[in-house]
Request: fold
Amino acid sequence: MRLLISNDDGIYAKGVRALANTMAEAGHDVNVVCPDRERSATGHGLTLHQPIRAEIVESVFHPNIKAWACDGTPSDCVKLALWALLDSPPELVLAGINQGANLGTEILYSGTVSAAMEGLIEGIPSIAFSLTSYSSSNFEVAADFAKLLVEQLTKKAKLDSILLNVNIPAVESSEIKGVKFTRQGVRRYVDVFDKRVDPRGKTYYWLTGEVLEDVEPPVNYNLPENIPIDVSIIQDNYISITPLHYNLTYADGFKQLAQSELQFKSNI
Reply:
């Protein structure tokens, strides 16, 4: 299978090496295009007002992998790969394996999820993989699951216009209880700006935040009942798979608007 792999942790991150090498060793045709440095929490930003450069990277990945380092965002990387670098389009876009979870509302900021979303926007089914730890360097369990998931999807499923957001607990494979399909939860943060002064006496601020609470999202009547939320099942050592899409239209909002009796002038 032709795979395009990107990330937001940078071309030299252990997570993307584990993912790409595992896929190449499984016999897939793998191309890698990643930022040349960490670009976490860049969301779906694109570079519009300066050129984008990409250089071939050698001796980092499996010898059968062709890889580029791009000085743009994760979304830039995927867009550049699809429109300029690759000879033929991939059948699947993979992003990750991210260092740290992408759960609940974190997906709105995630460069990893945005890289996968860029593939979806171009009509290619995509998967974002994240290891739910900022310190663990053991990506092998997550990489092995990624290989299994791609194999299963290739044989049994037809994915059209879908992005799968996959979060894998940072535990040994024997400790993982299973896999669950989930819905996006809500993760609230305490956003604290640490006020500092630089050597020249200028004030600057450093954003530091930590999870305050994980809460149940608003009821979505368009979803089947009893689907667990992603932020909850991870705590019980289940792998979470959440289907996502770029269409953010809130269907239940139409009912709320109809009931609000808003009135506007006819010439608006």
